[in-house]
What we know:
- By secondary structure, chain A is α/β, with parallel strands linked by helices.
- Chain A has helices at about 60-65, 90-100, 115-125, 135-145, 165-175, 195-210, 220-225, 245-250, 255-260, 270-275; strands spanning about 10-20, 30-45, 50, 75-80, 80-85, 100, 180-185, 215-220, 230-235, 240-245, 315-320, 320-325.
- The interface between A and B is medium-sized, with 33 and 28 residues.
Amino acid sequence: MSAIGRPLLEVRGLRMHFPITEGLVARKLVGEVKAVDGIDFSVRRGETLGLVGESGCGKTTTGRCILRLERPTGGEILYDGVDIARMERKELLALRRRIQVIFQDPYSSLNPRMKVGDIIAEPIKVHGIEPDAAKRTARVRELLSVCGLSPRFADRYPHEMSGGQRQRVGIARALALNPEFIVCDEAVSALDVSIQAQVVNLLEDLREQFGLTYLFIAHDLSVVRHLCQRVAVMYLGRIVELADGDELFGNPLHPYTQALLAAVPVPDPSVEMHRTFRPVQGEVPSPINPPSGCVFHPRCPIAVEGCRRERPELREARPGHFVACSEVR
Amino acid sequence: MSTTLDGRIALPADEAIVLHRSYWQATLHFCRREPLGAVGAVLVLIIAITGLSAELIAPYSPTANDFAAMTEAPSWTHWLGTDQFGRDLLSRIIYGARTALIVGLTSAIVGGFAGLVLGVASAYFGGRLDLVFQRIFDVVMAFPLIIMALAVVAIFGTGVHNVIVAITIPLIPRCARVVRSSALAIREIPYVDAARACGYSHSRIILRHMVPNVMAPFLIMLTAFVGQAILAEASLSYLGLGVQEPTPAWGLMLQGGAEEYASTAPWIAIFPGLAIALTVFGVSLFGDALRDVLDPKLRER
Ligand SMILES: Nc1ncnc2c1ncn2[C@@H]1O[C@H](COP(=O)(O)OP(=O)(O)OP(=O)(O)O)[C@@H](O)[C@H]1O
Ligand code: SF4
Ligand SMILES: [Mg+2]
């Protein structure tokens, strides 16, 4: 397949099982947290793929595996055609320039002991992109203004800035290496609603300006709907549905997605706009001992006997619309 | 500050103020908030300056014997009196300050920094390395500081250099353990993940991103170590296992004649004892105040 046609990122059967150990010296394995349990999806060049789901379903872990902050316990992560899932530290170095990250909490994602200018200049320096100090300073100023901050901020410490400003610094740092792919893990969730909109717009502008590709992890469905071309819904370490944004929100096929979207419409459109994921009734089961078969079966309103035994694969039920449910025709 | 870490590590507003204002402003702020600590700091400073400029200040040579004036009580010629060999006590105490400071500062700083790097590295790498380090620290720490120091002196012998080594070694795990627990929390903070995602080297992440953020507990430990090291040096010297004659050292001055003449010439023991007590007291006052300013949450314990 040509480089143009193939997706920038392709995740195949990705698994991240965290071991639970006991004992100080012997370290006996007593179980596993199946944070991500065999997921498949791909992200096309230039698109924004939304990843949504209740707390603890494995969204962050998925992002961390792609960033290779974790070493996946199974599956493949093809980035531009190359499997990065098992790469070693040295090999990953080149990848670090291409894949970057924006975190949720603008307070803890910046080193409080470093000035903003140094935070942004550091990756440029370490990767030897701009060895000349004066040019590096100019580049930092340029990055700050690209992210809507005055270059004066370069001399400030993060604690002297507001949450929204800090988040822009985080974005500037992510852009410093000229990446092509950015994992945004709840990148706007911690911000005030008014500032959220500004940062969402900034992310959109940057995507256009620099031809970026995003994996956008979020709770807020309205933001996802606004920003993402396609959306994947996760439940307990698995992807249960994946489709174009309009298709997913307009015609959800999986009973879990339906329940989430149907949760009591609010008359006030501005409240409705910012509705976040509501848990379906019943507890989310533990990822340590997930239910057999379809993990959603204990809470599923249309479950049948077979759902306890058969794990439904993610299949293309309509063109471009994937769903993991045996009862969807 | 709203982070995922346990409250102890969350950067207290005061620390941010203290560490980011100019040194002069920070010093003023410290003196106003902690007057007792400032007194301690001044005390330590005076002792340090005295020790450093001993040649200029001391009225006599610390080793000169004046056989015409042995075990003489304090007077205008010998302000603090003389010992049984006719040596001027004031001069010996002034020179002794130098020995105490050299041993105390060197051990505390070398032991502290070694512990800092080992503790942060242990937390950063985790896994087996962490496990091995932890066990080694536990073994060294199972012995009280002075016993451990005695063992080291028994192996390497006495003298200033060996005393420094003997006191440094037991301080390393004490520092590493405290630093490690702070560093474990720092490791989970997203800015460390951001550093990893940028592909920084292990040493850069440890030295630039983790070490500066465990400075508060580290500085508190460091001041405590200075006091402990000075006390340990005095104890070792008193036991005859530390600094050797004729080097002037406070612990050494308490030994031998001081006991013999305790009732007839008490000044021989009183003044070096006072010097030790005052120094350790000053360091403690300053250390406690520093702790209160840098880490207000520790105060409640
Ligand atoms: N390092 C780890 N060791 C053990 N378990 C982990 C680890 N990291 C995550 N988990 C577990 O994996 C599961 C998925 O966590 P993850 O953070 O990926 O969820 P999430 O979808 O991002 O949730 P949230 O919306 O709350 O951020 C959780 O049950 C979590 O407790
Ligand atoms: S497979 Fe069965 S349990 Fe799972 S969602 Fe479909 S109907 Fe419900
Ligand atoms: Mg998360």
